[in-house]
Specification:
This protein is 30% helix and 29% strand. With 273 residues, it is of the alpha+beta class. The chain binds guanosine-5'-monophosphate and zinc ion (ZN).
């Protein structure tokens, strides 16, 4: 019997995982790859990214309370920030790759990212270091809304099939500062963000997936245009890998070999004795 570790940590909210936990993550990453109708390329990111990029997308303005920063000491001993910050979401790495380009057809890219956010609480599932599997789509406005909604439907059906009883909720991002309520209300009014929420621990419900449309935010920022020269729209479907594993373990137990056959078959978990 191989039990998945869920309580080992390098620091609060910084999990250490074992091979059973990683096998679960590999299994549903495989599911997500097979579910992606575009079958696009999948990029993998390091845990750090250029500070300039994160400034350019406005993360430091909207979410400075979540952003981690790399500092080092000079020979004098003085500690100062470097050109790197900790990556807060996978899709930020994708858009600059298309900077200045005109896209004649929609673009689909997958990304597997190691992310960091300075969460204020360390309840189960609210990890500061976590992995995110995302699908990114660049298209027209209509195309992006349709693509996002199809991913929500697909993910909802899949999460139900693996026994997680997802609930779809209209959501907003945890903006910082005086404008936070206005920004969150705008996001909700336009239904820009939906989440699929499941139980990840006793009485603890959290989002394991979000479906987001960004309108022309990244098209404008990186000067990416469509065939007619108009700013491109973008959307992303983001899955929290560690949280999904925690939800599965909470629901079906720490020993994946004892999970229901239907769940094991969905995840193609044949490797456990
Ligand atoms: P979003 O960019 O929508 O905030 O996050 C995308 C997904 O990443 C969420 O649906 C969730 O599954 C995961 N996620 C976001 N924040 C955290 C976090 O603090 N800890 C963990 N483990 N996952 C997170
Ligand atoms: Zn994203």
């Amino acid at each position: 019997m191989v039990r998945a570790a869920t309580r080992t940590q390098a620091a609060p909210g910084i999990p250490l995982s074992n091979s059973a936990f990683e096998t679960i993550i590999d299994a549903f990453h495989g599911c997500l790859t097979r579910m992606d109708p575009a079958g696009g390329d999948i990029w993998r990111t390091p845990p750090v990214v250029a500070r300039a990029l994160i400034t350019e997308v406005g993360y430091g303005e909207y979410f400075p309370h979540l952003l981690g920063s790399v500092h080092v000491a000079a020979e004098s001993g003085e500690i100062s920030p470097t050109d790197l910050v900790l990556l807060p979401a996978g899709c930020y790495c994708i858009y600059p790759h298309y900077r200045g380009r005109t896209l004649m057809t929609p673009v689909d890219v997958g990304v597997e990212a190691i992310c960091f956010r300075q969460e204020s609480s360390h309840e189960v599932g609210r990890l500061r270091s976590f992995r995110m599997r995302e699908f990114v789509h660049l298209d027209t406005e209509l195309g992006c809304f349709g693509w996002r909604d199809e991913w929500l439907n697909r993910a909802e059906a899949w999460l139900s099939a693996i026994g997680l009883a997802p609930v779809r909720e209209l959501a907003s991002d945890p903006f910082f500062g005086a404008q936070r309520k206005v920004l969150a209300a705008m996001q909700r009014d336009q239904a820009l963000k939906w989440e699929l929420v499941v139980e990840v621990g006793p009485g603890i419900r959290q989002a394991v997936m979000s479906g987001n449309v960004h309108k022309t935010k990244f098209g404008d920022t990186f000067n990416i245009t469509g065939p007619g020269g108009e700013a491109i729209h973008s959307a992303c479907a983001a899955f929290g890998s560690d949280r999904l594993a925690l939800a599965l373990i909470h629901t079906h137990g720490p020993d994946p070999s004892a999970w229901p056959d239907t769940v094991r078959a969905q995840l193609i978990l044949g490797g456990f004795a």
